[in-house]
Design goal:
It contains five helices and 24 strands. It is mainly β.
């Protein structure tokens, strides 16, 4: 009640400046944070006249993702001063865009998931919306109040099975009436799994599922080794989206191919590297340079994939007399590709030229 009174007081100067007799205020909607039928009465009406008047209250709600909508209306008397909707609410008549939405709202007291617009307006009995005495709208998001959780593969799973089994769990009174849609997408370089699931075209999508498990089918596009994938589940009530699970990620690993790759690598003495050997770089490349003849030196680095030069940071390394050790990290700048082969050319200011050939290994795939 304190919030309602405060909202009313803050609006008074605005109301008088507009010369309105009625103001509808949805600023506290939904007061509980949960969208249900009771929340539809979370608004107030301020009557600035000195007499009561009978009006028609017309409410409407439109859901962005599904395109579904409904309206309600009832007649009531608005007394002078502040009117709380729960006090003037009188058996509204509803009109729904579909029987599915009607059953969802009226039978289960549930609403579609996602963004929606809720509007309330006052008109004189038999009047049109264009002659509204007062109105207000609220833009919100309905988040599902039931549990829809992914189970397997667990988040960031490393799988060896090319046709994994997906499973999830639901806790909802609507459980026996729900259908599910599974989506699997590629996660591209630099993408987060949440962005990938929203933007990328699915490599596999199946809707109309009635059970809580689904094998990746042999007829779908084959999953690739070392390509990260994101997956999620959407829940539908008679084709109306009412909730989505969080997004998880997985990757297929060729265990046989990775068996001979070391988890840790030693420092390479660059003066012994003339390009004749191929070494592994597991997330980074460790280099050692011993400076004996001079007090200081500089190492200029050039990185290539085939004939294409790749921007490298840092490009120049400082060296002092004695043993110098460096670690070049490749998980950010540049972000190298798993199993790809690269060539690092090193030129020193003192006249030395060296070359390190290496195969990059993403440590997340070990």
């Amino acid at each position: 009640m304190k919030k309602i009174l405060l909202s009313a007081v803050l609006l008074l100067s605005f109301i008088f400046s507009r010369g309105q007799n009625y103001i509808v205020d949805l600023s506290t909607f939904p007061s509980s944070g949960i969208l249900n039928k009771q929340a539809l009465a979370d608004f107030t009406v301020m009557n600035l006249t000195n007499q009561s008047e009978t009006v028609d209250v017309i409410g409407s709600m439109r859901f962005r993702s599904s395109g579904e909508s409904f309206k309600f209306s009832f007649s009531t008397s608005i007394k002078p001063g502040l009117n709380v909707a729960t006090d003037i609410w009188h058996g509204p008549t509803y009109t729904f865009s579909s029987s599915a939405l009607q059953n969802l709202v009226k039978t289960h007291d549930a609403f579609p998931s996602g963004e929606y617009e809720y509007c309330v307006e006052l008109v004189r009995p038999g009047g049109e919306s264009s002659s509204a005495l007062g109105s207000d709208c609220s833009f919100n998001r309905a988040d599902e109040i039931f549990l829809l959780n992914l189970v397997e593969p667990v988040d960031e799973a490393k799988l060896s099975e090319s046709f994994p089994l997906f499973s999830w769990m639901v806790n909802s009174p609507l459980m026996n009436e729900l259908e599910y849609k599974i989506r699997v997408v590629e996660v591209r370089d630099g993408q987060r799994k949440e962005n990938a699931i929203m933007r990328n075209r699915p490599v596999y999508e199946q809707k109309g599922l009635r059970i809580l498990t689904q094998n990746y089918p042999v007829t779908a596009r084959s999953l690739e080794y070392f390509q990260p994938y994101a997956w999620t589940i959407d829940a539908y009530y008679r084709n109306i989206l009412i909730g989505s699970a969080e997004t998880w990620e997985f990757v297929l690993i060729d265990q046989e191919l990775m068996a001979g790759v070391p988890r840790e690598t030693a420092y390479l003495d660059i003066e012994k590297e003339l390009g004749g050997n191929m070494v592994y770089a597991v997330g980074n490349l460790k280099l050692k340079y011993e400076l004996i003849k001079f007090s200081q030196d500089e190492l200029e680095l050039k990185l290539f994939e085939g004939n294409q030069r790749i921007k490298l940071t840092p490009r120049v390394l400082e060296a002092k007399k004695g043993e110098n050790r460096y670690v070049l990290n490749f998980d950010r700048t540049p972000r190298l590709k798993h199993l790809k082969k690269y060539r690092l050319q090193i030129s020193t200011r003192s006249g030395g030229n060296y070359q390190v050939n290496f195969q990059y290994i993403n440590p997340d795939f070990l």
